[in-house]
């Protein structure tokens, strides 16, 4: 007989044959408690038992600076999935990120995940919040892939100590970690191992780089257009500043009038009888608006945007305006506007 699932607290208490049945009874149910069991008798015993004492297996010796590939393989052959987690925080972003590396095969091929978040409840805990979310992601990954054992290799020593009770969970992020752990500790056996940061372990370094990569993970630029305007959303302020730096440096024949105020950056570009109004709103939508007739100045500006932007912007502009964007064309247009 395969594994069964006992629901101690949920919509309907009982022992269920499949995870799907169990999930239907506990998913979205506040305070749900359930456990994977070997028999109906074990399930009924769990349902009728008092709250168990949480026992956490922790390996956090100060001498543990690294973890060899051979050790990882040994865990995997014993039925474990192995996770490497890391978190980061930047004041300039007002956000925390996480990086996660999941290994579940002896060839040490891996899956990765990373994300950037800024929930105000957890910002105060900075990079620790990022690593906790990496741990949560690792637990959810392991359960969804039917693993019964998980080894989490982490940087921050407080993660297992909050769970074991050695440290009191006083912050919102530590409380969240305890909630998630208590919810799943009867479904999957979780062990923790502290890995010293930047000690040379390639998977730990990868988790660190993924947490950093999450800061650059941004929404794709979208575009709206009409006969006399183009509007970009998710156009970064860095892209906008670089655009006008190029114009000011290379195109001396273009007159630039600054009409910016506290709410927006606004410039009027003039060349001969052509005029363009360029406005940038550094709000959540990060909107760039270009207004003016589709004449030479209009397309010179678009060419600059395309050549200094990502593939997504190049593709949508080329499709919308039906012209091939290349360096020689930009040079030809710019030459007529730049004095010898």
TrEMBL record:
Its EC number is 3.1.26.4. It catalyses: Endonucleolytic cleavage to 5'-phosphomonoester. PANTHER family: RIBONUCLEASE H1. The keyword Mitochondrion does not apply. One of its GO terms (biological process) is DNA replication, removal of RNA primer. Residues 77-216 form the RNase H type-1 domain. PROSITE patterns: RNASE_H_1. Pfam families: Cauli_VI, RNase_H. One of its GO terms (molecular function) is RNA-DNA hybrid ribonuclease activity. Keywords: Endonuclease, Hydrolase, Metal-binding, Nuclease. CDD domains: RNase_HI_bacteria_like (cd09277). The lineage of its organism: Bacteria, Bacillati, Mycoplasmatota, Mollicutes, Acholeplasmatales. InterPro entries: Ribosomal_bL9/RNase_H1_N, RNase_H, RNase_H1_N, RNase_H1_N_sf, RNaseH-like_sf, RNaseH_domain, RNaseH_sf. The keyword Iron-sulfur does not apply. This is ribonuclease H.
